[in-house]
Design a protein that fits this description.
With 83 residues, this protein is mainly alpha-helical. The protein has 5 helices and no strands. The protein is elongated and about 70 Å long.
């Protein structure tokens, strides 16, 4: 079909993908997913997940990064003064 229409194969593939995407976006199911209620539930779930992760990690990761970077800078400065 692509050759008969004078379109390269990749152009035909792109056209089919765009048609499929436009059908999916205009379907009634997609309209329900775009509703403010579902967006609110999604954001609430993401917020709860982030709070769970943050409470599990706590300040441990931040303090570990701070301590490692302080040690690394101390070693670099010590080597620079000796060299």
């Amino acid at each position: 079909m692509a050759a008969a229409a004078g379109l390269p194969c990749s152009a035909e593939v792109h056209r089919r993908q765009l048609l499929s995407l436009s059908r999916q976006l205009t379907s009634p199911r997609a309209a329900r997913l775009r509703s403010p209620a579902s967006a609110g539930r999604l954001l609430q779930g993401l917020n709860e997940d982030c709070q769970t992760i943050q409470s599990a990690i706590g300040d441990k990761v931040g303090m570990t990064i701070f301590n490692l970077s302080t040690a690394l800078v101390g070693i670099i400065i010590g080597e620079a003064n000796n060299g």
